[in-house]
Amino acid sequence: MRQALAASQNIPAVKTLYLAGARNTIKTANDMGISTLNNDDADLSLVLGSGEVKLLEMTNAYGVFANGGIYYEPTGILEIEDRSGEKIEEFEKDSKRVLPEQNALQITDILSDRGLRVGTFGPGTALDIPNPNIAVKTGTTNNYRDVWTIGYNTDMSLGIWGGNNNNDPIVRRVSTYVISPLWREILDIVTEKYPGETFREPNKDYSDINKPILTGSYTGGIISGGRIIDRGVHSILHWTNPSNPRGPVPSNPNSISQYSYWEYPVSVWSRGQIIDTEDEEIEIEEDENEEEEDENNSNEDVEANFEVEGLNSTYDIGDEMEFVVDSRSVDIEKAEAVFGEESNVDSTEAFRFTFETYYLDEGVYSLEITVYDHDDQQIMRSFEVEIED
User: What is this structure's pTM?
Assistant: First the structure.
């Protein structure tokens, strides 16, 4: 998350919005002074620039991070004096807390990390700022219609926007190379008057978080009855319910609408990796509604045989097979071909495999098996698999 935010990566941003909830996120933005977003904008494309915002409100919203989660109403007039120097009216600060302090400090800790910026944009750019007490974020909307740079220290917040008044796209370059150089020139002048103080450090003790992904580790296991019943690489939705991120592990993650879309590419990636999970066993709280596994029941491993119909006798089987249950990729404990003496696979020969089903409720599921040959040609077969208690 730290690297993704600093590098302005879109996919982690979209996933974070999904986990936080678009409507919840818009409410937080409203609390931080963004007046132009409402529930009509509650869509995952929001993080890609589908919502309209004002430069003044965005710049002031970043000031909330600088103030440790405290929001102040922006004003252009601090005081009014008459010709004799008497104050007629003076601005009175009206503040309210809109973010937990630790959340604000964590954001600042990421956005002020020079090393992350240099790692993303390279040394010598406008964002390569030696001062560790400057936090900055850039943004480029879809089709390069808007470029933003907003940054702050403990004394001020500075924002700049670039784009065409008729909403035509500008040069196809990200804001770091378009508008950030001008922002940096202004920053160097402004910080002479408002140098800021040292940013406060957030609490970095995360010992109370014991879920894979949230701990920064992508492997782990659930311990039930003294034995590991889950292990391996999964998406964050395998471990976390969006409505209660630190709560119990979902007993049926398949019920989460985005689960299969997030889980499948992770499983495809993991098959090409060498991953040691022996030291990654983490005991975490299980959902209270999840029944304990019974070693003697049938809801453990399923073994099945199938014939790859439609393949001719010269079909040369490759090293890769994919097994998907109801759009969810499954880890195969054993998958082997029953070969004869020839290296080619005859269409009458079968593949035998087993896979764990502890995460599946009783019912009938669709099983899709895709077989690849050495030329990356593929054939897919679908079956129905019944899971019984």
Answer: 0.68
